[in-house]
Amino acid sequence: MVTDQFVKDEFISDILRRDIGIIYQTQEEVANRYFKERTGTLRNFLSRRAFTPKESNGEFSVYLNVLSYIRFLDMQYRLNYAGMSSKRAKKQRAKYAIYNRVVWGVLYNETFPDIQAGFTDEVREAWRQKMEDALSQHRLLTDNQ
To answer: For residues 64 and 66, what is the distance between their CA atoms, to the nearest angstrom?
Structure first.
């Protein structure tokens, strides 16, 4: 029997996996397009797309590994456009957004709305059916072996 909590956890973890993939993909594209390759550490890190989902006491958490300097790349390129008008400088800096703009943009525009409004009764029932089908197919496979 598939419980409502299990269905909800799977729904949320699926959305988090999808959106973490979007974050890493966007960061990788920005790094490849706009940042010079020096040691290759940034590109190697972003291509791994490493994160760790953990569940304990009914709470679901996701831990992302972050290079210590990636948070400051946005700020580093902000200084280079100090002499321009603010609109033009803002447009130029937007190209180099690799952390804050990407992470919070995906969380606020994709993840939170999908989790908040997306888990309707129809979605709940579709996920329940999907998981029950997967469980019944697994039982059939194990029975045949």
So the answer is: 6
- Please give the model's pTM, rounded to 2 decimal places: 0.69
CA distance linking residue 1 with residue 80, whole number of Å: 59
pLDDT tens for the chain, residues 1 to 145: 567 777 777 788 888 889 988 988 888 888 888 777 778 888 888 888 778 777 777 677 778 777 777 777 766 655 555 555 667 766 766 777 788 788 888 989 998 888 887 777 777 778 778 878 877 776 555 554 4
Q: Closest Cα partner for 75 from 107, 100, 44?
A: 100
How far is 28 from 87, CA to CA, in rounded Å?
Answer: 25
- Rounded CA-CA distance 11/4 in Å is 10
49 with 57: CB under 8 angstroms? no
Tally of CB atoms within 10 A around 17: 14
